[in-house]
Amino acid sequence: MKTGKFITLEGMDGAGKSTHILTIVAMLKARGVEVVSTREPGGTQLGEKLRALLLHEPMHPETETLLMFAARREHIAIVIAPALARGAYVLSDRFTDATYAYQCGGRGVDMYKIELLEQWVQGSGVNALQPDVTLLFDVPVEVSVQRLSDARTPDKFERENAEFFHQLRSTYLTRAANDPARFRVVDANQSLERVKKLVEEIIATL
Ligand code: TYD
Of 55, 72, 121, 202, whose CB has the highest number of CB atoms within 10 Å? Predict the structure, then answer.
């Protein structure tokens, strides 16, 4: 039984979401709730091994999709479900929306295959595991590409071309438009301070 809250953070590489995770953790902790901060792919010992492969090893897009869900299955079993069951707030840096954006939008994997895996791994119906809130950090593609070029050594996804990033962004925005009850779209193309304020306002409403 799930009693805590499941919050996910999404966006293109370079949208700055990692910067805001610490703010959210601090805000939630200040309210005295237990916070579990984690990430995908990863979050478990096995998941982090899969992450190393996923971020650096070339592979077929469907292999990539299957490994994302394999890591997710482990993550849910070992970290997410137990934390939610004991009433913690779980904050995950990416979750299944990223698979729709990157593997379906970016790589062209059939959406129905991702839906099947999502149901398998997260369940379906009223007991399905879904985020309660998803913060989507949105920036124009040019900004994302520019921020990435200023950053450290890029991984496999960060080396993709502009067309890939356009597909990511439009997939994310379409998903957000289709599920306004869950998504909060944060315009991340402004100063860090302003984005931080927006994030604080969203978290305060939870
Ligand atoms: P990211 O979360 O951006 O971490 P960092 O800030 O350290 O770069 O990196 C994870 C990468 O994995 C990112 O480029 C998106 C990709 N990814 C997918 O392609 N599909 C998924 O389902 C998930 C969770 C991530």
Answer: 72
